[in-house]
Specification:
Number of domains: 2
Strand content: 5-15%
Strand order of the largest sheet: 2-3-4-1-5
CATH class of the largest domain: Alpha Beta
Number of helices: 19
Radius of gyration: 24 Å
Helix content: 40-55%
Order of helices and strands: HHEHEHHHHHHEHHEHEHHHHHHEEH
CATH architecture of the largest domain: 3-Layer(aba) Sandwich
Length: 442
């Protein structure tokens, strides 16, 4: 086959694992049938369309499963139904997932709503900022009085605040100290702005939806009392999170859904919706061909954007190599693309060799191995054996870091069955194999 470097370069970039697909992109593949038949347009969008009051919903899933792509689909769907949607990916500009509090999220929501309606009168929010200005201006490194700033610059101060909070840990703490006592009044001011925005929506729109993405990436931190920062944000601050006067969709860490606060979450927000992995194996560890075919289709669609005349199978030394790639991904979309991209890094001339693919698999396996603590191997062996998890912090940590993956399948009665498995890469780690053989000899 060709050794054309330009083709390899374009192929390499077609498998970008970190960029959500834009709505309508030809590379999108509908995987609902191999994810338990769940659909965000039905599971999340339908409640917004039907509800006579504002809603607040949680959307979860493993990082890299494709939530952002699905949320962008939801945005387009709601736009088409007459809802003006403000979507933002919080980690890109507004939060540091290693250290997040509710105040950070409120400021991010404020900044992005103001940006979406930048031509609208924002006096309620600007008055709130003016009242805090003397406390904040030193942190924002300006001695100019608030009145001396132009209207546009006044509004831009919220972006300046969130940028500092995301990138400067010392300033983050100081800003929180200044703003935390005033979050209630900020919410009230923002709601006045939202109410005005809803009265002045562009033609064809009748209501407002805010989608806050990337909050699922907030790293869990256990406090001395045994509770987590996730509890503090999504449980303790529930009233504030729900207080904004529009429909709300927040992404949430998947590990939070399996804590002892799960019932509280459902009572507060309704049943959280989960985007599971693509099922490439059955619960009895057999390859699941419909899921494998979907994963191959994901790769094929990316290839077609580079060269529609090429066959995805011919990029590999054999069909077995392609199947191996699909199975080793665990049906995790980002891992699939990452494995493909890494294999291409070790390829000078197509087809991708078995050695290049195996090297890619080994590198990602080592990454997963590095996330696993010595006391977690037994839990992983038990999950592989039972396809179940235990509701404790050890298992929640494994869910968050993705050594444990969640799958959904549909039984003959149409009921959704939720089950778990270890990431298939872990099956090749010696520590896992030894632990499993000790627990389950023979």
């Amino acid at each position: 086959m060709t050794s054309d470097f330009d083709f390899l370069r374009r192929l390499y970039n077609a498998f970008d694992p970190f960029q959500p697909l834009p709505v309508g992109d030809s590379a999108y593949v509908d995987c609902n049938a191999v994810r338990g038949d769940g659909d965000i347009l039905q599971a999340v969008g339908r409640e917004i369309l039907l509800s006579a009051r504002k809603t607040c919903q949680l959307y979860a899933g493993h990082r890299g499963a494709g939530k952002s792509t699905e949320l962008l689909r939801l945005q387009k769907h709601l736009n088409d139904q007459g809802f003006f949607v403000v979507y933002f990916a919080a980690e890109e500009e507004d939060i540091d997932p290693e250290d997040v509090q509710y105040t950070d999220i409120l400021l991010a929501c404020t900044k992005n709503i103001l940006a979406a309606f930048k031509n609208l009168d924002s006096q309620p929010v600007l008055y709130w900022l003016k009242e805090r200005w003397e406390d904040l201006k030193d942190l924002l490194q300006t001695q100019i009085s608030f009145e001396e700033l132009s209207l546009e610059v006044q509004v831009s101060q919220f972006a300046k605040i969130t940028t500092k909070m995301r990138s400067e840990p010392n300033e983050r703490r100081k800003i929180r100290e200044k703003i935390n006592p005033h979050t209630t009044t900020l919410t009230e001011a923002l709601n006045k702005f939202i109410q005005n925005a809803k009265k002045n929506l562009p033609p064809g729109y009748s209501d407002l939806v805010l989608i806050a993405d990337n909050l699922d990436r907030i790293v869990p931190i256990i406090q001395p009392d045994g509770r987590s920062n996730h509890d503090q944000i999504f449980i303790d601050r529930q009233n504030q999170l729900k207080a904004l006067d529009c429909h709300l969709v927040y992404t949430v860490p998947i590990s939070l859904l399996y804590s002892d606060r799960a019932t509280s979450l459902t009572e507060i927000y309704g049943t959280p919706q989960v985007l599971p992995m693509i099922m490439v194996r059955t619960p009895d560890n057999q390859p699941y061909q419909p899921g494998i075919d979907k994963v191959i289709e994901i790769l094929k669609k990316r290839l077609e954007k580079v060269d529609p005349s090429r066959d995805i199978v011919n990029l590999f030394e054999s069909q077995d190599s392609l199947n191996q790639l699909c199975l080793m991904s665990g049906g995790h979309a980002r891992n699939l693309l990452l494995l493909m991209k890494q294999a291409l890094e070790y390829t000078k001339t197509l087809p991708i060799s078995t050695i290049a693919l195996q090297r890619s698999i080994s590198e990602l396996r080592n990454t997963y191995k590095d996330t696993i603590h010595a006391n977690q191997w037994e839990a992983l062996a038990n999950v592989f054996r039972t396809k179940e998890i235990v509701n404790n912090e050890l298992y929640r940590n494994l869910l968050f870091n993705r050594p444990i993956l969640e799958y959904h399948s549909q039984n003959e009665e149409g009921e959704i069955e939720r089950w778990y498995d270890i990431h298939p890469l872990i099956r090749g780690i010696k520590e896992f194999q030894n632990t499993y053989n000790q627990l389950y000899p023979g």
